[in-house]
Write a structure and sequence with these properties.
By secondary structure, the protein is of the alpha+beta class. It folds into 3 domains: 17-133, Beta Polymerase, domain 2 (2-Layer Sandwich); 147-271, Poly(a)-polymerase, middle domain (Orthogonal Bundle), CATH 1.10.1410; 279-449, Poly(A) polymerase predicted RNA binding domain (Alpha-Beta Plaits, 2-Layer Sandwich). It has helices spanning 2-11, 15-39, 49-53, 75-90, 135-146, 151-163, 178-188, 191-196, 198-204, 212-215, 217-227, 250-265, 282-289, 305-325, 368-374, 395-404, 415-419, 433-441; strands at residues 44-48, 63-69, 95-100, 104-110, 113-121, 206-207, 233-236, 239-243, 292-299, 330-337, 340-347, 351-362, 378-381, 384-394, 422-425. Helix 13 packs parallel to helix 18. The protein is elongated, with a radius of gyration of 29 Å. GO terms for molecular function: ATP binding; CCA tRNA nucleotidyltransferase activity; CCACCA tRNA nucleotidyltransferase activity; magnesium ion binding; tRNA binding. It comes from Thermococcus sibiricus (strain DSM 12597 / MM 739). Residues 152-273 form the tRNA nucleotidyltransferase substrate binding domain.
Length: 449
Amino acid sequence: MKLLEEVLGMIKPSEEERRLINEVIREVVDIAKAEIEKVESEVTLHLVGSIAKDTYLSGDHDIDLFLAFPLDYSLEELRKRGLELAKAIGNHFENYEVTYAEHPYVRAIYKGFDVDIVPCYNVKSWKEVRTAVDRSILHTKWVIEHLNGRNDEVRLLKRFLKGINAYGSEVYVRGFSGYLTELLIIKYGSFLKLMENIEFLGKIKIIDLEGWLKKEPEIAYKTIEREGEKPLVVIDPVDPRRNVASALSWEKFGVFYFKAMELKENLKLEFFFPSKKKIGDYKVLLREKGTNLIVILFPKPELVDDVLIPQLERSAKGLEKSLKKEGFEVFDLNWGYKDKAFIMLEVDRINRPRTKLKLGPEFLTNRALDFYGKNQKVWIRGKRLYSEKVVEEGVVEVIENLFAKDQISLGKNIRESVKNADILINFVPHELEEEAYLFLSKEKWNVKA
């Protein structure tokens, strides 16, 4: 189709870009091989990821180098020697830093390209996999063998997912990983065929490209049983124990589903390259909606995103649950960080009526008649008078009391930070004004827009 050809023209690397990338890769590989020969001749070098599979988008040039160690190395040896070797390679580049996932690896920059140098085991099958990154070599090999020239179809799917903000398996996205997009194209043959089968995909839920349900039924069915509450179960073609779509959230799958249904009806460039959202005034929006905004704001803890984001989510949901128990209606939640970490809650009101007990004097004292006359509801218990009054209690006071009593479920690493946070009502600092507007207007997650 003409429009898809137009999109491909915008996202497919040009010949000049390819030549540049291939030249940089040759240089990076030569540097790595020279260092390997110096210290660890048994290590095998592998280029993995979207560049190796030729499914990368123009302008997206991350280079993934994996240093595959023999299986007779202990995990401790792999980590120690792998990091030493990765650093030695990184020393040849403009700069590098040590980053931590399951085990440490090096992230470097060379001629403007991001280069990840990752130690792993040199595995030949899923039965040998010891660390999460070991599969990457198997993934690259399997996709290259099965993609059969449909690389551009993967590019279209990736750009579509980027356009609807559903691309990436990171905790702050929870969308479709690059590997998952490749498997979906291999399964359905093309981008448009996937779009045509979107309803079917939503109903079958299970994709088993390698036939693990027949070859390893016990293991594969355990994977399905464990992952059954997820929107998709895509049994990894190289490992029956793993669901490739495990990071995919219902929200991002839902966005994908509705956008695909729309695209079937009316294919537009907007799906791939959406126009920038117009940002209005969040205070005007609050007045128009008649709702209120609570913002919990605190210094960003020194935690990696994979730890921080889930704990912010847990804390936001803990606040929602506790406030609902206290009689506040919570419409929606948002969390993340800019300069500071934040949790946002949109609620129906910021004050609630609360009945409090008033303790009066004994009824035979001088003050008894005065108390009796001033209060509408009066009763006697023993010799003492009692009454009640309705007071306005603010949501800030409620939250502070809940914090003080440890009655809110919070992320363990940020619990004290949240409890000591600033609580803002219907106001955000300047750097969060856009975030607040997108949250309150639903533009941030608006499926229909």
